[in-house]
Amino acid sequence: MCGIIGIVDKKNCINDLISSLSRLEYRGYDSAGIATLNKNKFVLNKSKGKLSNLRLKIKQKKIMGNIGIGHTRWATHGKPSNDNAHPFLKKNCAIVHNGIIENYSDIKKSLANHKTNYQSSTDTEVVAELMNYLIEEGASPLESMKEITSRIEGNYALVFLVKSSNNLYFSRKGSPLVVGISKTFKCVASDTLALPNKVDNIIYLEEGDIGEIGLDRANIFDRSFNLKENQIHKHSSMQEHTTKRNFKHFMIKEIHYQSKSIDDTLLNFAKKNDEKIYLPQFKFDTKKIDNLSLVACGTAFHACMVSKYWFEEISKINTMVEIASEYRYRENSINKKTLGILVSQSGETMDTIKCLEKMKKQKIHTASIVNVLGSSLSRNSDYIFPTIAGPEIGVASTKAFTAQLTVLALLSLHIAQKKSVIDNKLKKITNEMFKISKNVNSIMKDKKIYMEIAKDLLDSKSIFYVGRGTMYPLALEGALKLKEITYKHCEGYAAGELKHGPLALIEDSVPVIVLAPFDKYFKKTMSNIQEIKARGGEIILITDSEGSKNSENLADKLICLPKSNFITAPIIYSIPVQLIAYYLATLLGTDVDQPRNLAKSVTVE
Ligand code: M6R
What we know:
Blueprint (H helix, E strand, L loop, with lengths): L2 E7 L4 H10 L7 E8 L2 E8 L2 H9 L7 E7 L14 E2 L3 E9 L2 H7 L13 H13 L4 H11 L2 E9 L5 E6 L4 E5 L2 E5 L11 E4 L5 E5 L2 E5 L11 E2 L3 H5 L7 H7 L1 H12 L21 E6 L1 H16 L4 E6 H4 L10 E7 L5 H12 L3 E6 L5 H5 L2 E2 L14 H20 L7 H8 L2 H10 L2 H10 L4 E6 L3 H16 L2 E6 L16 E5 L6 H13 L3 E7 H5 L7 E5 L6 H21 L17
Parallel strand pairs: 15-16, 15-17, 17-18, 18-19, 20-21, 20-22, 22-23, 23-24
Antiparallel strand pairs: 1-4, 1-10, 2-3, 2-4, 5-6, 6-7, 7-8, 8-12, 9-10, 9-11, 11-14, 12-13
Helix pairs in contact: 3-4, 4-5, 8-13, 8-15, 9-13, 9-17, 15-20, 16-20, 17-20
The protein binds 5-amino-5-deoxy-1-O-phosphono-D-mannitol (M6R).
């Protein structure tokens, strides 16, 4: 899937253009190119194949320019070649484009009486000729953009470099674009991951927006050409992630950060009030995939387990979830209709990498959900869906987990849409997802209750987490978090499974943390609570206001969370689970960020 970067800087922007393009490599591409404007002369360089070819080409010349555009192309109209690679250069402008211009032949016909010079077989070059013509006719770049967007049909993110102008011009419809801003620098990109590190703030463009950026400006107009007041989002630098700031531990900083990482991950692939998910496109027909095989370790495995409920209920697709160290050595029955999905924060977990190798030998399509771009998993799988959580330092995974859940939820919606099994509910669901960060913030405001619960758990020898539906894998995750950083014995169970054995361990004052939003499982979970109470267990119930009304005073302690739904619940309920483990660990004085015997990245078998 194509990638775009455009930069306006006080300094030479070539290095930033190239490093942004390298961060876009994960989307898949077959050619790359850059165009800059230096002393009002265009300089164009493009190469078929890997970015290293382009790098080599420009290394041999001394290219300059404070303003430029770059592109990685994934062929749609016209084969991969130098001629078909972007940018396209005309007398007055250069263009890069993501998407498809459906009426390009009509536009081509409409320009038949004017001087044109087509070099490629792409739909994009027609738009370059149209812009060139409009400027020649005396229109300003912004007027030309307005005219172009009224004439073209299809999906696009377009960025133009214009002769005699110090600004970049752009528009989007059906393909994402973000603007990056710092005091000395502006840029526009198809993806937040492509933004250079020096970006401080981001504006996410909305459908139909037209804009211009220059050193002194960042103007965005809506589709009726009214100047907009944009919502500015903070962009976190690498340094922001690797320093503790005022927090005692990285883990609590990363728990706090989740309102941002969930939003960043959402915004990278979806927009509010939009009917589409913008994940990198599969080159195969999604309808031909009839089962998924998800593989991961530890916390990432729990994320996969949650997603099985989504994939089977929302996307109506058979889903197998397996621990990587088991999958590796087992005979399995995947077939050509299987999509293998590997989930990993680090992208370097040996067991998961070996599963990718096995899947590749079995010749199935593979996709990875990783937090570290450039990691082994991301380099070797066919498709990459990045989590936008930033580097995670604490060994206990927190923000990566909720970002993995976010991507998996979006992927299940995307597949459901491709298979036409979701009707018109997508917009409603994604809008609900955009409210998660607000809910996370409200939970974080009231941390006292988690400190109190941690105090209660201090002397317990054994603790249980239980839940049903998506709350079952979350119970497993709660138990893992607790074991990992408090070194206390804790078990996670499906609430309905207690009676098949573990109930024997419930006696006076054994704490059982019950995860139970008021959903279709709630009543059943209440019956399990009765069974626990009858054996003297102490119930810590985590639910919502409806659940608390219907809990028949069975809870010894109750935490009331904001209302949630099938998709948002596991993400929202992750926060209390993480906070309980964190505060208990701090009371016990364990090494929260680097618990004993564990490593952040497990690169051995
Ligand atoms: O980097 P990965 O996501 O592949 O790591 C997998 C597990 O090692 C990891 O999730 C581990 O379970 C965490 N420390 C749990 O908090």
